[in-house]
Specification:
Number of helices: 10
Number of strands: 99
Structural class: mainly beta
Radius of gyration: 61 Å
Shape: extended
Helix content: 10-25%
Distance between the termini: 82 Å
Strand order of the largest sheet: 2-9-8-4-5
Amino acid sequence: MPYKVTPWYRRKRGTQVKTDYACQHTRSVVKHRTERKSSCKSVSQVQAQATEAMAEPAYTIPEFRQRTTEGTEEYQRVATNVSKGLSVIQEEIHRMRMVTKAQVDSLAIQREVKERMTKRTDWLDEIPKMPDFVLALRPHTVWEKTPIKLFCTVQGNPRPVVKWYKGGVPVDPLSAPGKYKIENKYGVHSLIISRCVVSDTAEYSAVATNPHGTATSMATVTVKRPAGGGELCHLGLVPHLTEIHPSKLEISLLDRFSISFGQEGGAISLMCTMVVVPDLPNVPPIAQWYRDDKLLKPSQLVEMFVGGGVARLTLPHLAKDDEGLYTLRIFTKDGTAEHSAYLFVSDAAPSAPGAPGAPMSVKAYDVNADYVLVAWKPPNTVNEAAITGYFVDRCEAGGDTWVQCNDAPVKVCKYPVHGLSVGHSYHFRVRAVNSAGISRPSRKSDKVTALDAAENERLQGKEEVIKIEGKYDIVIKDDDLEGYVTIPGEPTDLHASEVFKSYVVLSWKPPSPRGRAPLWYVIEKCIAGTGAWQRINTAVKLHSPRYPVFDLQDGHKYQFRVYSVNMYGSSEASAPSGPVQKVDEDGVPSAPGQVVATRNTKSSVFVQWEAPKVPKNLIGYYIDGRVVGAKEWFPCNHKPFRHNRFVVHGLTPGESYVFRVQAVNIFGLSDESQESSPIAVEPALATPSAPFGITMLSSDGSSITLAWKSPKHCGGSKVSAYYIDRRDADGLVWKEVNLEAVTERVCTVDNLTEGNFYEFKVQAANMAGVGVPSVPSAPMKCEAWNMEEPGPAYDLSFSEVRSHSLVILWKAPFYTGASAVTGYFVDMAKKGSSEFTTLNEEAVSHRYLQVSGLEEGETYVFRVRAVNTKGVGKASQVSEPVCARALPGTKEIEAGVDEETGDIFLSLEACEICEESKFVWSKNYKPIGDCPRVSVTSKGRTSRLTFTNPDKDDLGKYSVVVTDTDGVSASHTLTEDALNTMLELSHAIRHPVVPLKHGLNYEILEKGHVRFWLQAVKLSPSVSYRFIVNDKEVTSGEGQKISHDVATGVIQMTVDLFTRANEGTYTVQIHDGKAKTQSSLVLVGDVFKAALKEAEFQRKEHIRKQGPHFSEYLYFTIADDCTVMLACKVANVQKDTAFRWYKEEDEIVPETPPNVMSGACALPIPLFSRKDQGVYKAVLSDNRGKDTSTFDISGQAFDDIINAIAQIAGASASELVLQCTPEGIRLQCYMSYYTEEMKTVWKHKESKIASSEKMRIGGTAEMAWMQICDPTDKEKGNYSIEISDGVKTHTRTFDLSGQAYTDAYEEYLRLKAAAFAEKNRGRVVGGLPDVVTIMEEKSLSLTCTVWGEPTPEVTWFKNEQEVASNEHTKVTFDGGKFASLVINKVTPDDSGKYSINVRNKYGGEFVEITVSVYRHGEQIPEPKLGQAKTPTATPAATPAATPVPKSPAPPSKTPTPTPSKSQTPAPSMKSPTPASTPSSTPVPKSPTPSQRSPTPASSRGAKSPTPTRSIKSPTPPRK
């Protein structure tokens, strides 16, 4: 809609009369209700009345038109004023009489011709006739890309069917959508080809066919291509096409864009549809878009499109700069077609809560080489804190890096930016600052380039023309003269162009002459009157004749002067400026004056205000609104509005608002104006629109009963009367029907002539006057109805219109026919369609129908047919079109119960309402009216229907309609279940109980006290209650304490000493206002015994905790290395508190004494196994008492510990490792700890392996193993070990097959052979010491047992030289087992290193003995080889040595060193050991293996099949 605002005092009401006579007549009718009201008559109506008066000179004034004295005076006054133009009116009336007579004669002739033609047509229709082309096809020649229309007219009986062909091929529009269009209107057949191409050149034919024959019409179409556009058609002539200018088009606007609302950062499109005649694709209309009367140009921010019957403007990146009045102007044949509407753009979400909105309209002025002045408009601050300043940012064109120009916020909406680079282009933006934060940035300004305007003017400067003898012109430019200037002149006109609190801008004119050398300026300042000049721009070369000065002190006046400088030198100083002083920035306008708000439409208000008395360069105004009763204000506009009147849109219909206004200039916003008076959002008061839908309900031959529909717009006031006029269908004069106002929309018109046709029109009236008359009805014949079927239903209306459903209502027929109406059928059709569908298969007896299954957004029409026993009657008049779409903000009826009174009610909050609106409630679509069962109350936008005594009689469907709205309505079906639920809630409200979160319960406290408690949902401070125990009320006193807490709703009683006497029933009774409740607890029998036992335990626990005690009793944990830790926590301990560990009453003394002061003690049990089972006890004691904690490691506890160990061990288990031994192949799994009590299962090919001689299972603390003894091919396959911790099973696998088995088997055979050789090789099995010390002259016997299979060879050596047997040294080897070396009477020469070499084919052993001989009286030498000292051998009793026998014999008198027991293998114990002399002192030594033997000697005594550490595979890394 056009945004045109007319002041109230200039408005003309819609009912304003055209003559004083009509005005007087209207006043008279308003004053006297019993008199006839007249409509606002047009000039044509006055002329019609004058014509009637001239035709009947004997006309007498009816009695009802007799005027009062006041009316007579008024009439005389009007007659005096009208008399001057009476002659003119008489001439016009005479002319109109002649024209009317001619029209009547013409109508009579046309009627006669029509009747005769109808008779002739009926006669001709009976004659068969073959097709005949009355108008044949014509050839056409057109340009390429233009449309063409071939048409023809054909006759025939019956009507022929026409088909189109191109070159003999049928034309199919579906084969090329949009290419062809075939039409048949009023007997004219046409083929339309859009956007012809050269290939459309062909012969086209139309073939008409009926049962009596066929006719054909052909024509050639030639399509030409313009010169240079490609190959021309083969036909030679080029058609001449008249150029159609867009301004010659006939354009009518259809759907127009309305008031729109957008948000910063969003996008919006404004669109108008139109009809263009002729519609040529290559000639679109000329459309112009304006914002606030400024022409818009296409850009990145504005997109325009015209064509296809649409004119569209798209704003893809909305900002508040885009807010304003948008106008579309299209040039047409008759001038221009225009449409305007306002676009509102609101602020986007703030960058921080409470931050202001973004500034707008950022522009750059006074652009120079290194200076530009940036200005903007301030944002509106409604509920935010006031703006304290602005930051200005700049960005070079083409980049995206923004640089802040000012360090401190500037307080005015201007800022001089200096320091720009000459020739560079920039964009600018602004951000507002307040106490809450910084706003979002504004839209960036247009691009500006930093150039020196004075320099451009100089280079393109003035020209001086000198004429020589009038023939030659000599042109001299100013720049030509500048070449002779070196030192520039001084600047002139130095003044302050901008003076603000924060800065001052100096401006001057460049020097003249200035020279061609680059020029810059130097500025000096001084305090006025001092003459102490000081240079300002010391660090920057200034190229522009503008400069902002920021560092001026308050209260001082300054003077300035400027020098021009170039490469040749400096000019003289300019004349000093006048004194300049910073001024205060309190330059906001004064507050606007009185604000007046008036009605405009149902969603807008017209606001006017007085301009501020002190405008101070006003930019515009901001208007704020507030709902009456609310605290928060909202902005009505987001960009300063220039005028002092504004239409506020987007308001809630029926709501009341107040408004205020602020004036805006560069310094900010003024104070708020005074608030306007509250105003409700309703349409402005006007006369109602015309009624419509006049229909005839019945006729008896002398009267006709009419009905009509209410005006679509009541004019802001209730329609109080209707006036009906009638006339003969063939007459021109309207006659009034009713003298008194008709309040219903049904009226019976009497005194009619039977058989005549009549037309009727109706006018509606309200308190503003009588509205315009309706369109005359269709002619209605006055004849008696005698059909047996019922007449038409009437007054079709709609309720509860939603996206997919609605309810249609109607009134019963006025004429019922031969019997009463028994039901109704409802038909529906889409708008524009004549195909109606009956919605109900069986007739409904009630006068409403719920229609469902509608398409959202589709428009439908309906009609109703009444039924009686004789049949289906005449259909009603078709309803007004209704769109299946709910009104915005539509709400449904809510059923509820009043929290205060308990009343059951139905409530509706209307989304739209006006001052005259009423809520009309119905049950089953019958108005309720005054009914004792319900009461209706309305307040504001909400209406409530309250049930008095609800029961089953109140069940049904309730609906409500809000009058004088666009169809606000809703319904709700009250079911029995819903009613019962609400009755229960109502009873609970009317008979309230204190709701409880928890009923009465008990709790055993720490000291053995027992707490009885309950918790209510809510308690008031005035609550009262009492405890009753075994039917006796107890009060707070000794032994029990009673209390409550309002905040938590807890009521409690604490019993200090709970004994057997406390067994019984406990009850709490609560009264809180009107509400009450009680809760009981039965504490007897086993329940009481359990409570008593717990109380006694807690009492003992309290006593126990007075001394040292366990805060946590013994429990176990497992360390990462699988050490079991028995742990506990202690409390209330002292330094002298003792802590002891016991197992089965035996005290355990750990390596680390327990530290009770740490609060925790632990006993480690490493390498946990079944031997660690037992009862463990921890005892804590001191002089205050003693506490004990036990832990039984057996049964389930033992299993839990093993499972816990298995969990850690299983997680750390390595993959299976292959290890070969002489006995077989071994699979090993390393883990942090292993014990046989762990649940481990070995499997071979998914079959469990049991330990046997073939498959041995074992392990150590570090690993679990499974050995395959004497492996064969049967043992090939996949092996796995499963370690279960009771919850999870840890599995490791090894595939012993293929090459892995082959390699392992070969290694096993090698080790087996090596073991056999080691077992049978020659070796010394015992008897020899490492060191022998002996006195000279004694006999030394070195005897040992050797073994080997076969029997080994024995060789003795001294100092690596073989010893030969002689008298001094005797070597013997008896029985293949005993080897001896006897030296008689040793001398010091016998000292040295002796060795024996025992060897057979499998290997041997080399053992060394060190012999030391000392003289008598010498100190016994220390033993060597790092061995401990041994006792010196006792010499033999006989002076001479006894020879060693050759065969084994009992020990001789000469002692022999005896090897240690642990070093002698079991087989050697059966053979006698040779004795040594008493003087010998042997040092035991393990046999040393020879260098050939790979197996260590320690393996001789090993009984376990476990291989030695030296042959283990490297342990894999832990997992």
